[in-house]
TrEMBL record:
UniProt GO molecular function: DNA binding
Protein name, entry field: Addiction module antidote protein, HigA family
SUPFAM superfamilies per UniProt: lambda repressor-like DNA-binding domains
InterPro entries (alphabetical): Lambda_DNA-bd_dom_sf (IPR010982)
Amino acid sequence: MLSELEIVKGIHPGLILQRELLIRNIAQGQLARSIQVAPKIIDAIIDGKMDMNIDLSMRIEEALGLEEGYLMTLQVFFDIKKKK
């Protein structure tokens, strides 16, 4: 059986973030306020127009209770897939 990471490997972390927000019924603006970033940053990540960075990844993971490094790992796999 594949792990969740194996299933989503290569997908932009913004899509996974969007899914996590939907599951938790959290608005993008609400997340932005809780981690003290501009809402347009969350919008850009979800739209795939901005890549995840370490600081943002750690803030989001803490706010949503995700495993530390999860979103950055997705970003790395996405970057590898894009490079190929």
